[in-house]
Amino acid sequence: MNNKFIHWFHFASPQTFYPLAGKLWPWFAGVATLLGLAGLWIGFFVAPTDFQQGEGYRIIFVHVPASWMSMIIYLAMAFWALLGLTLNTRLSGMMTKALAPTGALFAFLSLWTGALWGKPMWGAWWVWDARLTSELILFFLYLGYIALTSAIDDPRRADKAGGLLALVGAINVPIIYFSVKWWNTLHQGASVSMTQAPSMAKLMLWGMLLMALSCWAYAIAICLYRVRSIILVRERHAQWVAELPEVKA
Question: Total domain count for the chain?
């Protein structure tokens, strides 16, 4: 067990993680593409029409996975930020920085598709609903992290400042998740729960789960791809970077 731990800890260094990320990201990108195509095909062409919301409900096959990922990625950022602040590891700050743009993208997609869904269902593009408002705050937290870390020239200081923001902002994630239970909101409750049977048809559920897995794989792939670029920039003066074939070329 100890040897296995040491083996995985070996990849905590940017130098060893860089080639690992290069090998993994194309596989995750391929999986994301296949699962996304399957999920969209089931969601938009195979799943039955909802008896209450009609065809307009199909936006959930993008909206719900995007909303899930916007929260999951922020928690992942908080995890890496905690590692960076406690263990002072260089890779942690790079991973946090690599995750932020993808998290912001998913938060934006969540808000945008939510507006498209809300207009025919509620008669308004936007309402100051508890879940919508807390999701908007999450989007601003992503933008705030990106702006803060970009404004500080020293990468280590930027990582620490951004890490503190990521940890403080993480408290907003449970607020988003439990908002429909804590307050009287227009937003409907969860259709998929860990403790209850799903309240949707099996084909709808399959389409949503495939799209969720696709978003997971995409987030991992793009994070691994982006962190390689960050590593090259931050480690550009290291000898191992100068010896890379892609750098020599």
Answer: 1
